[in-house]
Each structure stands twice: as structure tokens, then as C-alpha cells.
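Next comes a single protein record:
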Amino acid sequence: MIDSNEKNINIELIEYSEQFYSSVHADSITQIQSSMHEQTIKWINVEDITDNDTISAIGEMFSIHPLTLEDISNTDQRSKLEEYDNYIYMVLKMLSFDEQTSTPCIEQVSIILGKDFVITFQEGKKGDVFENIRQKISSGKSKARKLQTDYLAYLIIDAIVDNYFNILEKIEDNIEFLQELLTDNATGETLKIIDRSRRDMLYLRKAVWPLREVMSLLTHADNDLIKKSTILYFRDVYDHTVQVIDSIETYRDIFSGMIDVYLSNVSNRMNQIMKVLTMISTIFMPLSFLTGFYGMNFKYLPGLDSRLSVVLIASIMLLIGFGMFFYFKKKKWF
């Protein structure tokens, strides 16, 4: 029996067949259970996985294995696929983008594919990308209304993967901005942003890379829950997944290259400064010798008794200084 004293949560039930469509929002699994119809495909979307009682109630309703329920609550799962007697369990990572910090955010999505039901558990709702699916199903002319739950699972996975490209576009814009900043006026703060972006790419790679294995298993699935006609759609998602992974690898290399460019620019600027200081020191070296020589406290020095000695020595110092300057300029040393 399902406990009637459940916590309030956000659950959405979408039921459909070729001639029927229904959408219900509820705050308890009891309301969802009372709203169900027979001979329909059911999509239950749960936006809160912190309530273990609700997860257990859903598990009891659809005969979900306790290990699966435990994995749903554990948001540190890597993307994976597990087959059970009456359902297929999948874990994926849904991406969103924080505009304020310009960083990607990751949340876990668990998908349970059964004969006449699909259940999705979202870690949060910041990255919900299912609205387009809801619109497709609500349309009476939608292809989804004529097909089974495996096609609904494809739509959900495809929406998650396609959203990856939206996130990659924002990252690409961030790359262009950082490249301009790196060229114009790079500072220590720029290096921090680049390094954080590079670590974000490692974070994304860790989240997305296992999905390639999941999609490979789906494209070679030998399960009655997945029709051969649907495998073709999963192959398309597999291609998109490979493309996303390649892009992440490329962006990670670009950010690593940016760090090298920044360090190289800093080193070059330091070399230019040291070159100028060295040139100045070299020019003033003979001038310092002359001023030191004639500054000695001796009675007899050449030119001490001449009124033109100051003009002569100053002229010699200017001649030496400008002569060395033009010589360095001719050699293109600065």
C-alpha cells in the first residue's frame, strides 16, 4: 500500500495514445495513481528526488528494484544503462548554463523505460529541456502518439543531448571573448577565468563521456522494450554524442592553449621590459664612468682649468649616449 501521508512534491503525469491525451500536475503520487487510465502510454516526470518516500511509492507502484531506487537518490552516478526483467534503467546528465558566472551546470536525470510507462527523475528543474516534447505529444498529429514508450525515451534522450549543443555554443562565445581579452589586455584575473573554464571542460567531459557507452548499448540492444525501428533513432543520438565529446575535447585543448599563450605573453612583456632596462643601463654605463672619473677628488685632471671643460665633457657624454642609442636601433635590438 502507498502511504497517504506523503510530502508535497511536483509530479507531472502525461498520458496518451493515438486518440487520447491527458496532462495532470500533482503534488503526491496518490493523485497520480488515481488519475491513470488503462491502455495508454504514461510519462511520469518527478522534479524532486529528495523525498525518499515518494521514490519508494513509485517503486512499489511499478515494481522497481530497490537498487534502482537507491541509484535514483544518489546524484553522483555516472551515465549508465541497466536492464531488468520489466524495465530498462538509464542515468544521464542534463546541462544548463549559468549566465551570471558563465559556467555550465550539471544535474542528473534518471529514466525508467517500461512496457507502457516512462518515468523521469530530475535532480532539479533548472535544466528542464522537455517542453518541446510536451508540445509534440499534445499535438494530435505527432508521430510520438502512434509509437511506443521506446520512442518516448528516444525523445527524452535526444532533447537532453541536443541541449548540449546549446551549452557548447555559449562556451564557444566565451572562448571568443577570452581570446579577444587575451590579445588586448590580459591580466591575472583573465588567467583565473581561463583556468576555471578549462576545469569546466574536464567536468563536462566526465559527465558526457560515459553517455557514449549508454548510446552504444541502446543501438545494439536486444530487448523487447526497444523496437528495431527505434534503434535507428538511437544511432542518430549516438552520432550527436560523439560530436559533443569531440567538441568538448577541442574546447579543452583551446583553453589549455590559452593558458600557454597567456604565460608566453607575460614572459614576452617581461623580456621587453628587461631589454629596455638593459639598454638604458648600457647607455649610462660609459656616462657613469665619465662622471665618476671627473668626480674624483684629485688636483690634476685633464681639462679642470679650462672654461670649456664642462661643455666638452657634456658634449662627449651626449655623443656617446646618442651614438649607442642609434647603434642599438640599427641593430634592431629594441
About this structure: The chain has eight helices and seven strands. The beta strands are 11-16, 21-26, 41-46, 80-83, 87-98, 103-114, 117-122. The first strand starts at residue 11 and ends at 16.
